[in-house]
TrEMBL record, chains A, B:
One of its GO terms (biological process) is cell wall organization. Keywords: Cell membrane, Cell wall biogenesis/degradation, Membrane, Transmembrane, Transmembrane helix. Homodimer and heterodimers. InterPro entries: CASP/CASPL, CASP_dom, CASPL. It comes from Morus notabilis. It is a multi-pass membrane protein. It comes from the Eukaryota. The chain crosses the membrane at residues 38-56, 81-104, 116-143, 169-191. This is CASP-like protein. Belongs to the Casparian strip membrane proteins (CASP) family. Residues 31-179 form the Casparian strip membrane protein domain. Signal peptide: none annotated. PANTHER family: CASP-LIKE PROTEIN, CASP-LIKE PROTEIN 1U1. GO terms for cellular component: plasma membrane.
């Protein structure tokens, strides 16, 4: 672990020279990326939580019913929406847990190990969030438009509130995806020089 | 600001020690990651092309028909499958175009700019491939199992060949996704030290 050494080293010996020559500029730049990382991470958490909460509270009962059946739509009628909820819950849980690491990266802009850890975990989170969002989007599209060749009818004529909520959740998920993409780009740029 | 000193310090004073001990090794190690990158990229290309080709050739006509209608299933009946085809075609196009960059990274293991370019473009390709795969997977799941609450019936009882081809395309897409995830991880590790 060379990273642990970098950090510990300067406090002991090299203070005198390095401060004068070139140190302040790259460190500032690094710190800037770490702060942007933290802010973007907050945005990603907010949108992931919004997506999960919106999906989780989406259900609607229609005001009429037959003898055998009341018409009701809820996210747990669709396995894809259940996957969406679980996936976004995982992503927001990971993002919350990653906040302390992001703070450490602000305090110690040159700790490479943390950046590397974050970029790897962010990539996994990106895959999860994207697949949850895209799968739900495919179903939402079907709910809005139906598909004539396979004879699947649009259900959004009846369940308007449900469809609106679900569409909102998908949009929030894609906002989260965009945030995580930028998180990865920033981490990659910050890893470049150290 | 004790942290600012880290970077400038080793380059100025600690050279003597570091060069002798560990210099030749990292170059080899870098080259190794670049070669793995190239091989993984070939795997990703193969699976992306397989996914696109399988989806593109998937259509099936049933041997019976009514007066008004012949039963036929093809990828272009479903907007999601069209998106899948276009998305995977883009991804495989990008991956083929990125091969020369990967070769340059083998020849010059310390060219940081190329690595950075590849990691950024790979992240975008990952998002595209994941969303295409997940959206198609959601529809394939529906085609296999149907959904009782929204009254969408499974169509795979009739269109068995079509469903098999489409499922195969989704699996190939996820193989491609896994390859790209590992590409990003390797690039991140290789960016760490230079």
């Amino acid at each position: 672990m060379p990273a642990t050494i970098d950090v510990a080293e300067p406090s002991s010996s090299a203070k005198g020279k390095a401060v004068i020559v070139a140190a302040p500029h790259p460190a500032k730049w690094k710190k800037g990326t770490a702060i942007i990382d933290f802010v973007l991470r907050l945005g990603a958490i907010a949108s992931a939580l919004a997506a999960a909460a919106t999906m989780g509270t989406s259900d609607e009962s229609l005001p009429f019913f037959t003898q055998f059946f009341q018409f009701e739509a809820s996210y747990d009628d669709m396995p894809t929406f259940q996957f969406f909820l679980i996936g976004m819950a995982f992503v927001s849980g990971y993002l919350v847990l990653s906040l302390p690491f992001s703070i450490v990266a602000i305090v110690r802009p040159h700790a490479v190990g943390i950046r590397l850890f974050l970029i790897i975990m962010d990539t996994v989170a990106l895959t999860l969030a994207t697949s949850a969002g895209a799968a739900a989007a495919a179903i939402v599209y079907l709910a809005h438009n139906g598909n004539s060749s396979s004879n699947w009818l649009a259900i959004c004529n009846q369940f308007t509130d449900f469809c609106q909520k679900v569409s909102g959740a998908v949009v929030a998920a894609f906002v989260c995806v965009v945030c995580i993409v930028f998180l990865i780009l920033i981490s990659a740029v910050a890893l470049r020089r150290h």
